[in-house]
Amino acid sequence: MSPFGDGAINRGCRCSCSSGDDGGLHDGATNCSFSASHDKTCTHCARSSISCFPSALGFDSILLTDSKKLRRIFVASAKGFSIGAGLQGGLAIFSILARLRRKKSRTAKWRALVAGLVAGPSMLLTGSNTHHTNLSIYILMQAAVLASRCGIKSKRFGKLCKPLTWKHGDVFLMCLSASEILTSYILKQDSLPPSYKSFLHKHGGKDIVILQGVKELASSLSFTTLEAIEKLYKATGVEVKLDPNMKIPCSMIHGNKSCGVHAVTFFIEAYKRALPVYLPVYLIPAFVVHRQGLFKRPYRILGKGIVDIARSSLFLSSYCTSAWIWTCMLFGVFKKCNIPLIAIGTFPTGLSVAIEKKSRRMEISLYCIARAMESLFTWMAEVGYLPGSEKLKRPDVVIFSLSTAIIMHCYAQERELFHSKYLNVLDWIFGVPPHPSETPSCKNIRAV
């Protein structure tokens, strides 16, 4: 999925609590203890307390009371019901209008598309001030996959969509997303969603001041963090003297270690950080979904779960480690550090997704490309490359409407394009019994 650490910079906080040196990335040195003077009203304390708990799959874990947990479950259920009811209601309303106008044959093909478009604003029922940009972009990526599959089948657009049948398109998508995400993580963290940035902080293994130093060097800015970086290493028992005239940031990134030794030690620590992320991902479904099979063949099911945990942890730790290996290699070859080299060096990081099972690669790639797109458009809007974007108050609703229109159209006209698990969910939502002859495995369509 993605790489790196935790922590918010303490700007002007006067409380006596501390989260390491400005929080930073979790490399095992973050101080997560709370002093007696921990101020619950201080925003820095609030951020620090949250960052001390592990994040799984990019979402922050927060200690909640039973009442808060029940409230979150109720709110999430209400939001899901509102969106689902909006989609189903939009389809029904459009069907009624079509019948009243007696143009059923003309509108049947596009009825579901318009219904999805009309029902998209049901997201507003979740709250006028609650933005769901992450969700809407992820749904857009799923819609894009369906649209590409339609294009592959189409006689008109088949040749144009031929490149989308590439066997390793999921790996290429992951490389693209890695380049954007990791470059933004070093140079412009504010463009990343807060929860996802927290996930990157945790697994990046580097303190925020180190990233700031790399950013200053790549952007040809005056150094402001060299002393803080030296103090950070000194606190771990390593004496490092940084040169203000350095050309490459290796001494900032891994101190007195060589690039090779740093890669080995970082990988070991990264693997330890990755294991807790995937333990619940695989073990909980094993106990919930396969609870009956556990009594009949426990070794087979648990053994498969352990292998999957080891494989996914290897993927995440390799992803994080390779990000530093490739950039260090390029910096050493060209004897300089700049923004293009960071973007190029982080591109092959996505190759690590090949470690995962084929069935998981596309899901991971779509998740990451959605985060990358959000980061890219946020950055473009901030620098003024998207004029008029500030006038669009709810871009998530617009994106969600377009996405649901595509998905509903494919659901009505091209059901065989859906994987069985997604089709079963949609059939359950809309109350449509599956046809006994339908086998929507989508095995013959390999699309990005």
UniProtKB/TrEMBL annotation:
It comes from the Eukaryota. Keywords: Membrane, Transmembrane, Transmembrane helix. Its main location: membrane. It holds the Pfam family TMEM135_C_rich. It is a multi-pass membrane protein. It is found in: Endomembrane system. Residues 258-378 form the Transmembrane protein 135 N-terminal domain. Belongs to the TMEM135 family. This is Transmembrane protein 135 N-terminal domain-containing protein.
